[in-house]
Amino acid sequence: AGAAALRDSRLEIVGKFVDASNVTLLAQTPDGSRCVYKPTSGERPLWDFPAGTLSGREVAMYQLAAALGWDVVPTTVLRPDGPLGAGVCQRYVEASDPPRVLLAASAEIPAGWLVVAGGRDEDGSEAVLAHADDPDLQRIALLDVVANNADRKGGHLLTDAEGRTWGIDHGLTFNTDDKLRTVLWGFSGTPIPVPLLADLCSLLDTWSSATAELVPLVSEVEMAAAR
Question: Which residues touch 213 (CB under 8 Å, ≥6 apart)?
């Protein structure tokens, strides 16, 4: 579904994601397209984020990725109304390929993957956390650094049938304090590829115009921290 359909089409609730921290629903538009609908009224209060701001942060993350030219966040829009009121709608991604993040024995980690950490569980079994070394994940990792994402879990990375990896669940972004929390530490200490560095520099050169639409979604102080 495109941005206009997500924002304006009638939504029918067809399911609920029961493991989500906040109310997260699977919805469908009249043309059969599916989306993830998170009503603002279903956001759980947090001590370190102003109430009712998570929806805006989700949209701001999508727009930041778009400003960089990085197509790694599914289309995400603010929904002025919906079955449970205003909230955020995001194009639904059907995860079909094997995950790009694994917690497993070292022998089960694919060749070329980047190891984040290793150890043993309480039974003494080996456990290694690793992720793939691919361009989509690298862009997502950089996006998380810029937006100071405090919640990059393996479950927030979905790989579709075409092998594209998408980042989702961006409500805890645009912090003013250092709160980067991520499973993508495998890229730590490696040089930023020149093309991605060029994208970042280009965004800085056009920051005011490129991010003008983000200011209503997050505060000016938070945008200054991202810059």
Answer: 63
